[in-house]
Amino acid sequence: KNQVEQSPQSLIILEGKNCTLQCNYTVSPFSNLRWYKQDTGRGPVSLTIMTFSENTKSNGRYTATLDADTKQSSLHITASQLSDSASYICVVSDRGSTLGRLYFGRGTQLTVWP
Amino acid sequence: EADIYQTPRYLVIGTGKKITLECSQTMGHDKMYWYQQDPGMELHLIHYSYGVNSTEKGDLSSESTVSRIRTEHFPLTLESARPSHTSQYLCASSSGTQNTGELFFGEGSRLTVL
Hints:
The complex is a heterodimer of chains A (114) and B (114). Chain A has no helices and eleven strands. By secondary structure, chain A is an all-beta fold. In chain A, strands 2, 4, 5, 9, 10 and 11 form a six-stranded mixed sheet that branches. In chain A, a hairpin with a 4-residue loop joins β7 (62-67) and β8. Chain B has 114 residues and is mainly beta. Chain B has strands spanning 4-7, 10-13, 19-25, 31-37, 44-51, 54-57, 65-66, 76-78, 87-94, 104-105, 109-113. In chain B, the strands form two sheets. In chain B, strands 2, 4, 5, 6, 9, 10 and 11 form a seven-stranded mixed sheet that branches. In chain B, strands 1-3-8-7 form a four-stranded antiparallel sheet, with no helix packed on it. Chain B is globular and about 35 Å long. The termini of chain B are far apart. Chain A binds chain B through residues 2, 4, 9, 31-32, 34, 41-46, 49, 89, 91, 93, 98-100, 102, 104-107, and chain B through 2, 4, 31, 40-45, 48, 50, 90, 92, 99-103, 105-108.
């Protein structure tokens, strides 16, 4: 069973609307959680990083939240644009080694329609 | 934009051929990685390197091999390609001076073995 579960698997919204993507994890111990955006045919790009003590972090129209007690994170996209169409991947890092192993979710495929 | 490059972007070859996927980065990062990504699935780590002359197998068993003769270069080789090797291969790097888990990805090499 994957230790990082994302929902929904896919999502279609209209341009200008808001949406929220979910990430639940069981990784322990916990170091940090990143959200990546992967455009079709490209490599993932980091949007934001959340550490244990952080609850909310914004990057433009993207706002990530973290509840370390319930092991849940969300990525909220405000006023969506066509360019937001992409896969959004949640990645959790543990503290089990100096390298910090990474656990990947399967991503949420977001499509923004005009 | 990350300075990490992969070639070729797309490759279609016949069964039994030897192929090398190239990956180069100009950021001076110590750590480099190869991931395999299939549609709708999470990224799987197949090889990683801490630095020159250091290579390790990742979580997913792979028949490929890698080498790290120079800091900036981390090629992946398949001696005899099979249809089961058809996949997207993503190269990534990260700085050895921080353990925040941020990966800088190349744009990927999509391999199709007929």
